[in-house]
Write a structure and sequence with these properties.
elongated, 55% helix, two-stranded antiparallel sheet, 7% strand, mainly alpha, single chain
């Protein structure tokens, strides 16, 4: 499962429709790598899966170019935290987020979430509005 935040779904759709097929005829095979290497495997008869180091290195190069203040600090794990925080901030249920991240303990998921400074205050105001609505309906 890939959380498609910040328009990532459009990027994935473009990749699959316009680029992926250029790496070989296996693009429709569900076992074929979504991100293939340019190296062809004779035993698999298709491109190998791109390695973790290539993705990390690509992130490192892109970060140095586009986000120099984050150089040496932006990692795939930091992006995982950002994704979790963005989904939670957008209204995703904490329990659903736990399942998405594959955490056994809800406390682990809670540690991934970084909220805005006004988050607690906004949650308090929202809870009080819901309570006021319930009391008003009960009268």
């Amino acid at each position: 499962m890939v959380p498609a935040i910040n328009g990532a779904d459009r990027l994935i759709d473009w990749w699959l429709a316009e680029v992926r097929h250029r790496f070989g005829d296996d693009w429709s095979d569900p076992d074929a790598p979504m991100l293939p290497s340019e190296r062809h495997s004779k035993e698999l008869e298709r491109c190998r899966r791109v390695g973790d180091d290539a993705l990390r290195q690509g992130l490192c190069v892109a970060t140095a170019r586009w986000l120099p203040a984050w150089s040496g600090r932006l990692t795939p794990h930091v992006l995982r935290h950002y994704c979790a925080s963005s989904l939670y901030g957008g209204g995703m249920d904490l329990k659903a987020l736990q399942g998405l991240l594959g955490h056994q303990w809800l406390a682990t998921t809670s540690g991934y979430i970084h909220v805005r400074d006004d988050h607690v205050e906004q949650a308090w105001v929202s809870a009080n509005r819901r309570l006021e609505t319930r009391f008003a309906e009960g009268e």
